[in-house]
Amino acid sequence: MGRARLLAALTAAARRSTADRTLIACQRGGQTTLRFAHGRFHQTFHAESLDVWVKVACGGRVGVAATNALSPEALRRAVQAAIAIAQVGGRRRLAAMPAAAGDRPAPLMTHRPETVARPITETIATLATMWRRAERDGDALAGSFTAGEEELAVAGSEGVARYQPFTVAGVKIVATHGGRATGYAAATSRDLARLDLHAVAEQAVQLARANARPRTLPLGRYDVLLEPDAVAELLEWLGYIAFGAKAFAERTSPLAGRLGDRLMHETVSISDDALHPQGLAMPFDYEGVPTQRVALIERGVASGVVFDTAYGALYHRRSTGHGMPYDESEGPLPTHLTISAGTTPRAAMERLLGDGLVIHRFHYVNGLLDTRRALMTGLTRDGTFLVRRGQRVGAVKNLRFTEPILEAFSRVAALSRERRLIADPGSGLGGCLVPAMLIRNFTFTGTTQ
Amino acid sequence: MTPPTIAALLHDTVAGLARRRVDYADVRWERQQHEALIVQNGAVGHLATSLSEGCAIRALVRGAWGYAAASRLSGPGLGATAARAVEMAHACAVVQRERVPFPARPPQRGSYRTPLEVDPFTVELQKKLEYLQWANRELRDHDAIRTAMTSLEFYRTEKHLCSTEGADLQQEIVESGAAMEALAALDGEIQRRSYPMGNGVCLAQAGYEYVKALDLVGHAPRVRREAVALLRATACPAEVTTVILMPDQLALQLHESCGHAVELDRVLGQELSFAGGSFLDPAARGRFRYGSRLVNITADASCPRGVGTFGYDDEGVPAQTTPIVRDGLHVGFLSSRESAARVGLSSTGAMRADGWNAMPLVRMTNVNLEPGGSSLKALIAGTRRGVLLATNKSWSIDDQRLNFQFGTEIGWEIRRGTLGAVLKNPVYTGITPTFWGSCRGVAGPSEWRLYGVPNCAKGEPVQIMHTGHGAAPALFTRVQIGARR
After folding, report:
1. Which segments of A201-341 are extended strands (E)?
2. What number is the average pLDDT over the span B442-468?
3. Which A residues, 201 through 220, put their C-beta within 8 Å of a C-beta on chain B?
4. ipTM score here?
5. Domains and CATH numbers, chain A
6. Which helix (H) or strand (E) segment is B231 a member of?
7. Of A354, B52, B319, B457, which is most buried by a Cβ count within 10 Å?
8. Can you list the domains of chain B with their CATH numbers?
9. Out of A40, A45, A364, whose CB is closest to B359?
10. Closest chain A residue by Cα to residue B85
């Protein structure tokens, strides 16, 4: 739709509003997804999306309405619905809204026209070639390819007017070797030209082949080398339970009451950085507030959490640019988590591991067991390998871990120099940028059959 | 029901697709209205309403699928969306080596509407807030309660599906739900108790009468007391013992270890790159022992008040009641027209999309454990040593749906047939067929409860579906509780 038309529509609706203050955000776009398994596409679709969120303040009360139409009449109705909600009686919490437009967001290049210009027939042909090659070699591929574009715009009665276009493309592949052994690889980028589909498939196939004939391992504690996909699973859960202002305010976060305390090993620094050039950058949030890099853990010490305007007001702080869509009730959350790189080349880490396990990926992690300790459980998946004296000696059956992650991150022995972006192309506006991580004495409490 | 202008557009679009000589096509219009209210510590924490409307078109051309969705509800808009679906199908047909099996069905014409007493969208917001405030006051009436949250949610989903086979189906589904959660804190310890279940709103396909019947105000003192009691409770021990699960935990146990495992698209490997596969094998259907002889599980899309209840699924198949486990043997799957045909079965009518811009997937309907002949009292009385666990807090299961671990909000020890001390942070773990195989008792119909889970994630991009699960308290022997070290 473009900057001028989209901002004009939102600004006109915000200015016509009779509320004390009105803010309107719109996210619209289209995404093509190809899902495949067993040498055929089972889901192939192009879906448009359009979401409009309206937040108004009337006499200190806030109302929220959402719609999926952009006509002046549809926007007027949404504003009226939000005003009607704001006028319903009752004391409010979290009623603060952004004041007049403040700092300008950093200029970012987040839209690559070629990502959505490539004909889908080309990608379909490429994927089919990959399947056939894999089949000839006795492997099977399943997975998905996604490419799309979005626009995010925010306009308000106080003069805020933000617009940013985005593209994102990604591929995920699970290779199966010999009918049972699986390997996973994935890549996501704003630029389709940077995705090497064949390389991703090859990586998954190699992993699947190495994962054949897994042995059963006794339960207990093992030193582990977590690859970036596995690290990102744990970090996303930490983001949800620990680093948002809502969990902090409700004291379920392990950081509540512990800012300034050492919670992890001093080599671990975690931040949320939506401006990082290696991530899926985002210049402002759904309130139009410029995104900031926020230090969450600095050299192992609890440093902060992320805020939107409403939670910022609770703590007499400015928003850090982490406002979510207005109909969300989870509060501000970090969506661009990073762990600082270490100094050890990834290639040297298995030697450093000595005896232990290399884990490529976790499955179905849950971090709600005891959030104050960040106690989590989950299973390994698609490639877990036993290492003896720094050499891989074979695959092991999937294992369940149950581990307080703050304590585990206190036993970090090394972080890789290289980092990888782990992001779901289906969401497109976030991700984790993480190194591989070597942790001593990780606890395994179950095994699969 | 569907506005006449929309119905005419859908019929025109189907006629246009038929003229393109597709093998099959369907056009699905959806409009969803949603309202959410949260009161936290006596103040309104969140109050929002939303409306979303659009159309999805699915086309089968030369044996390959294409799908497109858009919110432009005009003749040219739907025409462009239809052209995109057909174009996508053509592109896939070029590389497809076999035609998608999609058996024809007799055209269905009909409608379905949620039976309800009070349309929740006609109840004034002020009245709803006053109800939440009242329950919230009761819930936080103790110094240790740091966060008291009460909430309501309502959905109205209108659908109209037309197909080139002649299907013409209208549905209007209304869901109502409520939740209550108390967070108690003392000396750095935080404990949570919830009602009617953990992790969010419990939904039912019903009107406002459902949230009134849940009686948040009446349950608030018990929830508050139990949250406070957990602060001083003993930690759940690690041992192998007898476990009695209450229905609000069995709902998640059914969901994760049975419901997902019997989705035939998963079984066929279509979810490998995201959610994983399944340990169940279509070739062993009718012979594989899933549980003890007391275990009978049914996928029932006609269950009163179930959020997995409907008239027709999103490819026009009428709602069905499907036996999944009978006397402990695995006998059935949840399936679509295509997935069922791939294993020589008929669709069980489980294709559902979570909105107008999502493609239907095989989803759970209401996956229920049938009641048995015992009672909670008898199950407890017959247990010499064990634990009673209630209300789901955490969930995790492997990609084949075998190795699971669940945490519950609360537990009680059982000693010599009597409930004893409260236990905090309970977890239990097992392997699906072994666990269900250890079922030694299921309470009867009077203790059977139905829950509506609002957050079942599946597919890429992720779709969030509402699924129903009913159960009565059940007893399992030789279960590992606590984390093995």
Report:
1. 220-226, 270-272, 294-298, 301-302, 336-339
2. 97
3. 219
4. 0.95
5. 3-210 (3.30.2290.10), 220-447 (no CATH)
6. helix B216-231
7. B52
8. 4-231 (3.30.2290.10), 234-481 (no CATH)
9. A45
10. A45
